Amino acid sequence: MKTTISQVSKHLDQTVTIGAWLANKRSSGKIAFLQLRDGTGFMQGVVVKSDVSEEVFQTAKNLTQETSMYITGKIVEDTRSAFGYEMQVSEIEVIHEAVDYPITPKEHGVEFLMDHRHLWLRSKKQHAVMKIRNEIIRATYQFFTDNDFVKVDPPILTGSSAEGTTELFHTKYFDEEAYLSQSGQLYMEAAAMALGKVFSFGPTFRAEKSKTRRHLIEFWMIEPEMAFMDHEESLKVQENYVSFLVQSVLNNCKLELDVLERDISKLEQVKAPFPRISYDDAITLLKEKGFTDIEWGEDFGAPHETAIAESFDKPVFITNYPAEIKAFYMKPDPNRPEVVLCADLIAPEGYGEIIGGSQRIDDLELMKERYEQHGLNSPAYQWYLELRKYGSVPHSGFGLGLERSVAWIAGVEHVRETIPFPRLLNRLYP
C-alpha cells in the first residue's frame, strides 16, 4: 500500500511503501537509521541487518544524501520523536542516486544557500517555514470566506501608482506606459462598490532599493476592502483576522513550530482585542525611550516600531498618523483634519509593521483636492475618482504583508526565508 509520511498514523502496524528522499543517515555495523522526507514530512526509517536481506542492508548503508527511493516497511510508534512514528524497513528500491549533493549537514553561508535556494527548500527548517506559510494562506481563505468576503483578483499590470510613489517597475505596454502593481487597493475599492466585502491575494512589486531583513522586491499581499465600514469597524476585522491566523498556526503546525524552536508562549497571547496607541502618544513614548530626535510629523523607522512594540505583549495599532506622511486616499479625522483615520499594526519581537490600513476618502470634492495636491491629474486616475461620483459610501480597507507575517509567526529572522524564491535587491537567481 502506497502512502505518505503525513498519513502514516493511519497505517500503524501495517506495511506501506513511501516515495521518499534521504535527508540524512547514520549507521553502525548492524543497524542503519535513515532520515526520510517525502514533501509531506520527515520520518525515520530503521534498517536492521538481521531483519533484511544482505542486499537491502548494503543498499541502505550506501545511500547518499538526497537519493530518491521507494521504501517499504512496517509503521510503528516512536515515542522518542516529536513525529511519533517510524518505519521498520524491509525493502528499498533506489530511483535515482544523488551524487555530491552540495548542501551537506555542515554550516553554509547565506549567499551559498541563496544560490542553491532550489535545493535549500528541501531542508527541515525551510520545509517548516513553507508549511507555516501554507497554513497562513489556507487560514486566510477560511477567515474571509467565513465572513462573507468575495475574492477578487486585481491586475498586476497597471497604468498608475496606487500610492503616488516613484518606486515602481516600469514597462512598455505596447504603445503605452505601464507598471508592475505595488498594490491592488484602488481596484479593490472598485470591487467593494460592486460586491460589498472583498479581498485580494496576489503578488506586488516595489522597486525600493532596501536591503533590510524586512524588505523584498516581490512579495504577496492580502488586501481586503469593505463598503459601508468605518475605520473602527475595520480595526476589529484586522485584529480578528490576525488572531485567527496565529491560532490556526498554533493548532495546525505544532511540529513545524517545534522544528523552528519557536517560543509559542508569545504567540499564545495573540488574541483580539489588540492594544492601540495614537501617533501623538507614540512620539511621547519614543522620546521617553531615548529617541530625542524624533519630531511630530516624521514617519517611524524600524527602530522606532520595535521600541513601541516592546511596550506591549501583543501586536499594537499605531493610529491617526499625520496626513502629510500618509497616502492621498486616507480620510482625515473630522475632528482633527491634520491626521487621518488610519492605523499600522506592529508585530511584537521586532518584526515591524505587518498591516497598513485606513478609512478611505469618500467625498468627491475632497478627493479632487487631494488629486491636485499630489499631482494625480493623469487620465489613468479618472476611474478612481468616479468611485466617489456614483453612489459613494464610507469604506475602509487594509493590506497585510504575507512574508512579514510568516517571519513573525514562524520566528524567522529574515523575510528571504519566508518566500520560496526571494527577489532581493541584488538577487534574481534562481
UniProtKB/TrEMBL annotation:
Recorded catalytic activity of this chain's protein: tRNA(Asn) + L-asparagine + ATP = L-asparaginyl-tRNA(Asn) + AMP + diphosphate + H(+)
Domain of life assignment: Bacteria
Record localization: Cytoplasm
GO biological process entries: asparaginyl-tRNA aminoacylation
Chief localisation class: cytoplasm
One GO term describing the cellular component: cytoplasm
Keyword list, A-Z: Aminoacyl-tRNA synthetase, ATP-binding, Cytoplasm, Ligase, Nucleotide-binding, Protein biosynthesis
PROSITE patterns: AA_TRNA_LIGASE_II
EC number(s) on file: 6.1.1.22
Family matches, as Gene3D superfamilies: Bira Bifunctional Protein, Domain 2 (3.30.930.10), Nucleic acid-binding proteins (2.40.50.140)
Gene Ontology MF terms in the entry: asparagine-tRNA ligase activity; ATP binding; catalytic activity, acting on a protein; nucleic acid binding; transferase activity
NCBIfam families per UniProt: asnS (TIGR00457), PRK03932.1 (NF003037), PRK05159.1 (NF003483)
Family: Belongs to the class-II aminoacyl-tRNA synthetase family.
Official protein name in the record: Asparagine--tRNA ligase
Origin species: Oceanobacillus piezotolerans
